[in-house]
Amino acid sequence: MKLLAVRRLLRIQRVVIRYRLDDLLFALPLPWFLRALRYALPWRWFPRKPLDLSRGARLRLALQDLGPIFIKFGQILSTRRDLLPEDIADELMKLQDRVPPFDSQVSVKLIEEQLGKKISEVFSRFDVEPLASASVAQVHAAQLKTGEEVVVKVIRPGLKPVIAQDLAWLFILARAAEKLSADARLLHPVDVVSDYEKTIYDELDLLREAANASQLKRNFDGSPLLYVPQVYWDWCRPKVLVMERIYGIQVTDLATLADQRTDMKMLAERGVEIFFTQVFRDSFFHADMHPGNIFVSTVNPWSPQYIAIDCGIVGSLTPEDQDYLARNLFAFFKRDYRRVAQLHIDSGWVPAETKLNEFEAAIRTVCEPIFEKPLKDISFGQVLMRLFQTARRFNMEVQPQLVLLQKTLLNIEGLGRQLYPDLDLWNTAQPFLERWMRERVSPKALLGNVHSQFEQIPHLANMARDLLERMSQPHALNPPPSWHRRRDDWFLRLLGTAHLAGGAVLAAGGPLNQLAYWPAGIMMAVGLYLVVRR
Question: What residues form the membrane-spanning segments (predicted)?
Answer without folding.
Answer: 515-532
